[in-house]
């Protein structure tokens, strides 16, 4: 009965792995694994019981309170004269906290929400959203034009004029260029 079970198991292995069944056992199987991450290294496949000792490290043994990463630690401190050569370098890190990463999808969403507030007559909220859109995507023509319109509605005419001019700088022949030119003419009269 046991012979029939072993024969069935052998048949299943032969059917699952026909190439391995035809080849038989590999000669490397007795010496150790033939494949692995470092098969090109001849010492990797050596059998430690066959008389060759595993490779040794020349580094002294570590004490209980010492880490192996201390041996490869890199000094990241600035050079001694760096502070004198770059006196304003410390301020750059302080200013960097308010910087937004370029994100056109976030800018598009801010423009969409700004439009909602503009149509509701909440110009302060619309201004915030359009300005935020320009932080995430500077020189966005749509956000610039809508910011100019909202500034004009909020009676901030100088800033509105600057934004209409910025829009015309970005898209001289854009879809809202005619409207921007009319707005600039209207604002010159005020």
Please tell me about this protein's structure.
This protein is mostly helical and 190 residues long. 54% of the residues lie in helices and 0% in strands. The N and C termini lie far apart (106 Å). The protein has a domain of 85 residues: Serine Threonine Protein Phosphatase 5, Tetratricopeptide repeat (Alpha Horseshoe), CATH 1.25.40. The chain has nine helices and no strands. Helix 5 packs antiparallel against helix 6, helix 5 runs parallel beside helix 7 and helix 8 runs antiparallel to helix 9.
Summarize the structure.
With 190 residues, the chain is mainly α.
Topology:
Elements: H1 2-16, H2 18-23, H3 82-85, H4 89-95, H5 104-120, H6 123-136, H7 141-153, H8 157-170, H9 177-188
Helix pairs in contact: 5-6, 5-7, 6-7, 7-8, 8-9
**Proper CATH architecture of the domain at 104-188:** Alpha Horseshoe
- Mean pLDDT comes to 77
> Helix tally?
9
Fraction in helix: 40-55%
Q: Structural class per helix/strand content?
A: mainly alpha
* Residues in β-strands, percent: under 5%
H and E string: HHHHHHHHH
* CATH superfamily grouping of the domain at 104-188: Tetratricopeptide repeat domain
Task: Provide the descriptors you would attach to this structure in a database record.
about 190 residues, mainly alpha, Serine Threonine Protein Phosphatase 5, Tetratricopeptide repeat, about 55% helix
